[in-house]
Specification:
heterodimer; A: mainly alpha; MetI-like fold; 8 helices; 0% strand; B: mainly alpha
């Protein structure tokens, strides 16, 4: 049946691929969170047209397949004068994809913060930027946390798409092994297991964070 | 642009394959979703465990891996499918797991009391489910389900990775051919056009979905229950992919 010795022999190569998966995902998660927050603030701002432009960006990215976005960035952008390496094309594609979902979940978080909060801040003498930074943002981000976590996990899963442009991440390494050694079942069992461990691990970490942040609000 | 016009028949053929594949995975995913939901709500513990495990598995493994797995591993189990059908199987398995998550959450949103009252009026089992529970669960199910449908349509582009001849694959072939013949690579035009085609297609589905949503929400207009239902639907929607 399954040749465990073969899987163990292949582990070093798989872990090197996993390293790339993690690196590309961590960078994309960091950038997309920043762009998500900035985009959300623009979306809700009074700057003319800014809200509309962000809304159109969100609609377009959500309405198109991630794989085509990846191909457009890697194969299409060089024609338009922007040549990126495979790795940075992947980071850019993942960042764009994840940022639109962050914008949406942050927006839901911000709109959940009540209006009377600003009256409370004003009566305490907080300036409007202090109110935004120390009151609104923490509360909004906390209520956006569950859907933000889904997007973070989605970013890790979507990094597997980057094998299609030849990024040597986990899936790419496994497919290469399948092509050379024909141990198909072993390789797929191994990478499915690795993805499961990562996805469930990150979800568990996220739930722990959620629980920790809920602590002050728990009814006693 | 003239290039796209020159190869229009070839590209339209790819687009037709995409539509066909979208139809197959929408039907396949929904059916698999209903089967999994029935398993998750079944009276037997082993079947509940198995259905839950399958749902988690297909939701947590990246779709790209599932598509490749179906293409490489199914033939070893004696199921030799061409790229089109192996992609359909993989996307349906993934879509069904997410559909089950939606259906389950929708059914849970309708309290036990409704089921019991229906049973008290003699509407047990499937009759109670279809006549009493489902119509009430629909406003919670429809919005995330429409989101999932657009994700399924987008997911068909993964067929290109294993060589199923859909729109994205047609685009790739077109780029390869013209690069060989003319030297220049029109990649951004071709991929840009494909992006727009998918965007319009998904937009149409969302617009149709909004209409269906409205008709199911009509009985709740101007009642306090309306916002509660909309919130619940949003909560469910945030746990399933709306893009792929």
């Amino acid at each position: 049946m399954i040749d465990w010795a073969y899987i163990i022999d292949a582990l070093p190569a798989l872990f090197r691929g996993l390293g790339t998966t993690i690196m590309v995902s961590v960078l994309a998660v960091a950038f997309s969170l920043l762009i998500g927050l900035a985009g959300c603030i623009l979306r809700l701002s009074n700057i003319p047209m800014a809200g509309r432009i962000v809304a159109a960006y969100v609609e377009f990215v959500r309405g198109t397949p991630f794989l085509v976005q990846v191909f457009f960035i890697f194969y299409g952008l060089p024609d338009l004068g922007l040549t990126l390496s495979i790795f940075w094309s992947g980071v850019l594609a993942l960042t764009i994809w994840a940022s639109v979902f962050h914008i949406e979940s942050f927006r839901a978080g911000f709109t959940s913060v009540g209006r009377n909060m600003s009256d409370a801040s004003a009566s305490l003498g907080l300036k409007s930027w202090q109110h935004g930074l120390f009151v609104i943002i923490p509360i909004a981000l906390r209520s956006a946390l569950p859907s933000t976590l889904n997007t973070v996990v989605g970013t890790i899963k979507n990094s597997a798409y980057l094998q299609a442009i030849g990024l040597a991440e986990l899936t790419y390494v496994a497919i290469g092994k399948v092509a050379s050694d024909f141990r198909t079942v072993e390789m797929f069992a191994a990478i499915c297991l690795i993805y499961l461990v990562i996805v469930l691990g990150v979800s568990a970490l996220g739930h722990a964070l959620e629980k920790r942040l809920d602590e002050p609000y728990r009814q006693r | 642009m003239s290039l796209l016009f020159e190869y229009r028949v070839f590209l339209i053929a790819g687009f037709v394959q995409t539509l066909l594949m979208a139809l197959v995975v929408a039907l396949g995913g929904t059916t698999w979703g209903i089967i999994l939901t029935a398993g998750i709500r079944s009276p037997w513990a082993w079947l509940r465990t198995l259905s839950n495990a399958l749902m988690e598995l297909f939701r947590d493994v990246p779709l790209m891996v599932t598509v490749l797995l179906a293409y490489f591993v199914l033939p070893m189990a004696g199921i030799g499918l061409d790229p089109f059908w192996s992609t359909c199987v993989a996307i349906s398995a993934w879509g069904g797991a997410n559909a089950a998550q939606i259906f389950r959450a929708g059914l849970i949103s309708i309290g036990k009391a409704q089921r019991e009252t229906a049973a008290a009026f003699g509407m047990t089992g499937l009759r109670g489910l279809i006549l009493i529970v489902l119509p009430q669960a629909m406003p919670v199910i429809i919005p995330p389900y429409v989101g999932l449908l657009t994700a399924l349509v987008q997911a068909t582009s993964l067929g290109a990775v294993v060589g199923a001849g859909e729109l994205l694959r047609s685009g790739q072939i077109l780029i390869e051919q013209t690069t060989i013949m003319k030297g220049g690579s029109p990649a951004y035009v071709v991929y840009g056009t494909i992006l727009v085609v998918y965007f319009v297609l998904c937009r149409l589905i969302s617009m149709a979905g909004t209409q269906v949503e409205k008709s199911f929400l009509k009985p709740y207009a101007r009642t306090p229950g309306r916002t509660e239902i909309v919130d619940k639907a949003q909560d469910v929607a945030s746990t399933v992919p709306t893009s792929a």
